[in-house]
Amino acid sequence: MNMSELNNFKNGFGVKSYVSTCIEFYPAPLPVELPENNESLKDSYDLFHNSRQFGFEPIFINSNEIIVGEIDQDNLEIIPGTEKKIDPKEFLKFQLSKINLDTLIQIPGRVDFTLSDDLISNILKSTTNPDIKVDEMGYPLDESNWPEWLNHSDNLFNIHKPADQYVDEWKKTLEIGKKFLSDFRISHSNLILDPMIDSILDQDSGVFNHLEKEINNENINEIRNSYKNWNCPLMILYSGKMWPSFTGTGWPNFHSTNHSINKIYLRNYDEGTPI
Question: pTM surpassing 0.85?
């Protein structure tokens, strides 16, 4: 999957044809107000695009081909004649290569993405010093030569905060997981991002499934109460029409000032039990 088409837009790009889905992450319980300006999150639609104030970034997903074009930095309009058709997986992969690690690490465990034996073997074979003796799977024979992430491969992407006595170890492992993603999401994107995208779009465990509750103005406080005790951030999915853009500067990396949100859902794939 080649990302060069999108990288060729030196001044950034915008989506001309809309995308239909966005996901964001929020801390539990679902906040009542925004920390930066104290604005109320009274209505369900106030959630859209505000996870950035809690350290997360939106991710935009589409199932069909997307038309993008270079944007004019003065008015953020698409420059006529620069339009290109982009595969939806390529568009998603570009985002996953750019978003912050606090957002990226929220994804694997929610869509059944794990480090398979083949994936681990391929990374080890391509990154281990050739002077180090390894077995047929690429594991260094001397465990002191194992990379730090390999010792934590079973729980590298565990986003569930444990009981207090285990929090320090959990935080350490989570940082190792983020460093793993930082080290390999670009250099080994075919091994990390490509299968992660397949998991995101999977018909069974992907993000379009397990939409447990629709959020609206009438039940948003009920949602806050029902999911207040979760030990991981809440995943919110928006359905509608969105026209995100990417400039390479600012926060978040991708934003959609133009949008029309139809439905908002809280997704739960065995991430917790509502009250």
Answer: yes
Cβ neighbors of 235 (< 8 A, separation 6 or more) are 23, 24, 25, 106, 110, 207, 266, 267, 268, 271
Q: Quote the CA–CA distance of 146 and 137 in Å, as a whole number.
A: 13
Q: Tell me how many helices (H) and strands (E) the chain has.
A: 7, 10
- List Cβ neighbours of 201 (8 Å cut-off, separation of 6 or more): 61, 63, 89, 207, 208
Taking the chain (275 residues) in consecutive chunks of 10 residues, what is each chunk's mean pLDDT?
Answer: 73 94 97 93 96 97 96 88 96 97 98 95 96 96 97 96 96 98 96 97 96 97 96 98 90 91 97 89
254-255/245-246 β-pairing: antiparallel
- All residues at 6 or more sequence positions from 104 whose CB lies less than 8 Å from its CB, including other chains: 96, 178, 181, 185
Could you give the dihedral angle defined by the CA atoms of residues 80, 81, 85 and 90, in that order, rounded to the nearest 10 degrees?
-80
Q: What is the pLDDT of residue 4?
A: 64
Position 101: which residue type?
A: L
**Sequence-ordered list of residues with C-beta below 8 angstroms from that of 127, at least 6 positions apart, any chain:** 147
Q: Domain boundaries in the chain?
A: 4-109+204-267
Using an 8 Å Cβ cutoff, are 107 and 196 in contact? yes
- Distance CA(59)–CA(23), nearest Å, equals 5
CA distance 35 to 184: 33
Name the residue type at position 242.
M
